[in-house]
Amino acid sequence: MQVNMDEASEGWMIEDDMPEPEPQAPAGPPPWKVLIVDDDVDVHVVTKFSLSNAHFMGRRLSFLHAYSGEEALAVLRNHDDVALVLLDVIMETADAGLKVARRIRDELGNSLVRVVLRTGQPGQALEHSIILDYDINDFWCKTDLTTRKLFTTVIASLRGYHSLQEAQQRIARAEAALRAVHGAASEALAALRAGQGWSGEVRLGEPPLPLRLQVAPGAEPAPFTEAGQFTVAGQFTVAGQLTVAGQSAASGRLPDDA
């Protein structure tokens, strides 16, 4: 505590020492979102307790809850990054969970989320036909799903979700690169047809590497010439001539220390 004289009021002003703000810990990776869908509250409680200490790839689990098929679909509409749905078969109707599983794929168009069906009455559902007819990833009777089996099922589902997510991202990057190359080729061809030159850059590969191109109209028999520079870590260059007759020549050079 500090005591200072306030010259303006000729009085005393007491100042409390403010504690230094604690540095915030760096944010960790986001948790895996797991949606529990069941009309029995106890199932939610037991499932969350059984998986409370589960981690995968350094990420904990975060639980969302729904107590009917419609609630489950509403949650999935608002959270497009749910990794796993633990889905009860029999809720408001005897096949409510099956309808939700089908609508997840067909109506929501969500092919990534892993769906594990659970039922308390296995005699009312033909497991083989359900696995074949519905795009689900596992099917368990609740009485058979011990804590160890539940943990194993959840981790396997998260691993599958992660692999599919990475594959989808790679496909998206490849499609974007293909569109960029196609767009550059179209622009270059349009410029050549108009008797003009063109220059631009496209990125290819993973990680993406820059490919700089320059195209200019040429004299017969070659309607145009092409020269480009392809750089890998700034060391390798290639340049060439291209003719419509299909004859091409290219030269490249690698430095002595490559």
Automatic annotation (TrEMBL):
<feature type="domain" description="Response regulatory">
    <location>
        <begin position="33"/>
        <end position="157"/>
    </location>
</feature>
<dbReference type="InterPro" id="IPR011006">
    <property type="entry name" value="CheY-like_superfamily"/>
</dbReference>
<keyword id="KW-0597">Phosphoprotein</keyword>
<protein>
    <submittedName>
        <fullName>CheY-like chemotaxis protein</fullName>
    </submittedName>
</protein>
<feature type="modified residue" description="4-aspartylphosphate">
    <location>
        <position position="88"/>
    </location>
</feature>
<dbReference type="GO" id="GO:0000160">
    <property type="term" value="P:phosphorelay signal transduction system"/>
</dbReference>
<dbReference type="InterPro" id="IPR001789">
    <property type="entry name" value="Sig_transdc_resp-reg_receiver"/>
</dbReference>
<feature type="region of interest" description="Disordered">
    <location>
        <begin position="1"/>
        <end position="27"/>
    </location>
</feature>
<feature type="compositionally biased region" description="Acidic residues">
    <location>
        <begin position="7"/>
        <end position="20"/>
    </location>
</feature>
